[in-house]
């Protein structure tokens, strides 16, 4: 199987499961007997534990040959963990299993992104074309599992998680050819702390934490806010789907239009889109403007993510790829988003939809952080 096909299938299967987990898992926990307070506790603990799991797993991966076996092991453990929910739905069981699955399940993404980063260098992989299948699968899961939950019951949420992880486990038995190549001269990858001390990495993480973290209020409270403004859940679903479709278009056009654009330029474009998007959403809830704001998801998330991938895969030494991918997943996509999600809840209680203005202000420092080249070593003549 070619690396492009393997990664496309992996992203599709993983994000179909994640498109189930993110919006619907709280519903399943409620149907399993968890109170609203316990559901909130479980989701919060899961967010904290996943960061520990990602850093713990990625700190052990130092060579390309480790990637597929670790992905295979984590997929199997994740599948078994979710299967255990069928028979253990006491408060203690839900707590233990929630901690267990969040230690292993989220780590699958930085591992697959690290594999993609290796193939970008090794075979000039069209990353956007492979990654767009994940976005498409996310939308499909929102629609399909939503209907299954409505007409067939909440157990379909758990069935879907087990199915997606079972299929990922089977996929890992079919190895991509060529395999991810080792570092030159057999050098192993650098540890996370060594990577963190590299020039530009700390600034890169702060930039991406602000850009991706600014989406926290949108992810957590936009649906509630729009519903309170009189929009139906159907319209809200279409708006969310439109944002992901815009993201897919960016990934699809990555190689054709963006392949020669630097990470710094992509991140600057993501900043401009984020400023405009959060400003629009803070100023109005008119449907036409909401559509425009959702189209800007292509830039605020999609282009920003491509900028992060570009920096990791092209502007860092190959030894730093695994560590940088772990730090990006754990800090920018994990810790920052989790903290800002909790802060957003407090801000929403006080300011309602005007909280979007705080998200716009949050990304303003990125303009200063991007004033110079991200990697000064590479920029030096």
UniProtKB/TrEMBL annotation:
What are the UniProt keywords, alphabetically? Answer: Cell inner membrane, Cell membrane, Membrane, Transmembrane, Transmembrane helix, Transport
What InterPro entries does the database record attribute to this sequence?
HcaT-like (IPR026032), MFS_assoc_dom (IPR024989), MFS_trans_sf (IPR036259)
The keyword Calcium is assigned to this record: no
Keyword Cell inner membrane recorded: yes
Give the principal location in a single coarse category: membrane
Out of the domains of life, which is the source? Bacteria
Residues in Major facilitator superfamily associated domain copies: 5-357
Record membrane topology:
Multi-pass membrane protein
Q: Where would you find the membrane-spanning parts of this chain? A: 7-28, 34-55, 67-86, 92-111, 132-149, 155-174, 204-225, 231-253, 265-281, 287-308, 320-343, 355-374
List locations, semicolon-separated: Cell inner membrane
The family database entries (NCBIfam families) matched by this protein are listed as: mfs (NF037955), PRK11128.1 (NF008346)
Protein name stated in the entry: 3-phenylpropionate MFS transporter
The root-end lineage is: Bacteria, Pseudomonadati, Pseudomonadota, Gammaproteobacteria, Aeromonadales
């Amino acid at each position: 199987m070619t690396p492009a096909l393997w990664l496309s299938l992996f992203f599709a299967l993983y994000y179909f499961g994640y498109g189930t987990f993110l919006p619907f898992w709280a519903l399943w926990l409620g149907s399993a007997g968890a109170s609203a307070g316990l559901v909130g506790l479980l989701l919060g603990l899961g967010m904290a534990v996943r960061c520990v799991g990602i850093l713990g797993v990625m700190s052990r991966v130092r060579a390309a040959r480790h990637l597929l076996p670790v992905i295979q092991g984590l997929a199997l453990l994740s599948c078994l963990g979710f299967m255990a929910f069928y028979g253990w739905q006491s408060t203690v069981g839900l707590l233990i299993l929630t901690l267990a699955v969040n230690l292993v399940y989220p780590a699958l993404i930085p591992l697959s992104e690290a594999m993609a980063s290796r193939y970008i260098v090794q075979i000039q992989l069209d990353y956007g074309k492979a990654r767009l299948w994940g976005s498409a699968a996310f939308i499909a899961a929102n629609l399909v599992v939503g209907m299954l939950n409505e007409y067939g019951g909440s157990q379909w949420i758990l069935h879907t998680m087990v199915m997606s992880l079972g299929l990922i486990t089977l996929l890992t038995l079919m190895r991509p050819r060529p395999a991810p190549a080792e570092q030159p001269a057999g050098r192993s990858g650098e540890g996370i702390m060594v990577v963190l001390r590299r020039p530009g990495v700390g600034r890169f993480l702060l930039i991406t934490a602000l850009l991706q973290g600014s989406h926290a209020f949108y992810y957590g409270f936009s649906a509630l806010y729009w519903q309170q403004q009189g929009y139906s859940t159907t319209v809200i679903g279409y708006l969310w789907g439109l944002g992901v479709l815009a993201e897919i278009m960016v990934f699809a056009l990555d190689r054709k239009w963006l392949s020669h654009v630097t990470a710094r330029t992509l991140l600057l474009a993501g900043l401009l889109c984020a400023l405009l998007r959060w400003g629009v959403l803070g100023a109005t809830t008119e449907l036409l403007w909401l559509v425009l704001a959702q189209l800007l998801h292509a830039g605020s998330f999609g282009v920003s993510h491509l900028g992060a991938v570009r920096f990791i895969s092209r502007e860092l030494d190959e030894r730093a790829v695994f560590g940088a991918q772990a730090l990006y997943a754990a800090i920018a996509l994990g810790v920052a988003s989790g903290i800002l999600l909790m802060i957003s809840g407090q801000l929403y209680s006080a300011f309602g939809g005007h909280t979007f203005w705080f998200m716009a202000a949050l990304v303003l420092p990125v303009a200063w952080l991007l004033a110079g080249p991200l990697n000064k070593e590479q920029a030096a003549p």
